[in-house]
Every structure is written in C-alpha cells, then in structure tokens.
Amino acid sequence: MTAPKCKAITKDGTPCQAYALAGSDYCFHHDPARSAQRREARSKGGHARHGRHVGPVGQADPVELDTMADVAALLRHVINDTLKLENSLQRARTIGYLSGLFLKALDMAALEQRVIALEHALERREHHG
Length: 129
Hints:
By secondary structure, the chain is mainly alpha-helical. It folds into two domains: about 1-50, no CATH class; about 70-129. The protein has helices at about 35-50, 70-85, 90-129. Helix 2 runs antiparallel to helix 3 (about 90-129). The N and C termini lie far apart (about 90 Å).
C-alpha cells in the first residue's frame, strides 16, 4: 500500500505529485498548518547558500605562471581553498580533479628542472670544450 498523494493543485493547474504527510492531506510544501515551518526552512536555506566564499571575491592578485612549479603552487593554493568549503560531493570531485592536475604539474616541474639542468651542462661543456 502506498501513501496518499498531496491533494493540492500546483500553480500550473496539475495535481501535486508529492506524498501527503502522515496525518495530513497535504505534503510539506502545501500543508497550510506548516506555513511557519516552511518560512523558517526557506530562511535557513537562504542563509546557508549566501555568503559562501573563501576570501574577497574578485579581488585576487594576478599570478605569474611561467613555470610548471608556478602552476603546481597555484594548484596547491586552490586545493587548500577548496578544502575550506562546505563538504559536498562537488567539493570532493573538485579536490580529486585538482589533485590529479597537481600530481601532473609536479611531474612536469621535475622534468622541466631536469631539462634546464641538462641545458646548463651542455652550455658549460660548449664553453669549456
């Protein structure tokens, strides 16, 4: 046996498809006896959504991205900022994605340093030989 559906009619004229609350003919959104609870829930939801930011929005200093080490440093900073946000599936996915990019940037930074060292060694060899 399924619970009864809400008896309210939506704004577009169709019957509400939500299930009625126990002891009521209406769902939470349409039950006249729950208007104060709905108002409080909307207020809490609005407060939870607004004002989420890690630092001054739109006021970040420009960054220099000349080397892979610079990219790795930026990714480290962004990952740390992301960790400060509210825990969510989206946050977890973002951290996972950024962590993968960070590991690649570390590998590329190490390779970049090796190439630079080899170039310097070749230059020294040319000057001495």
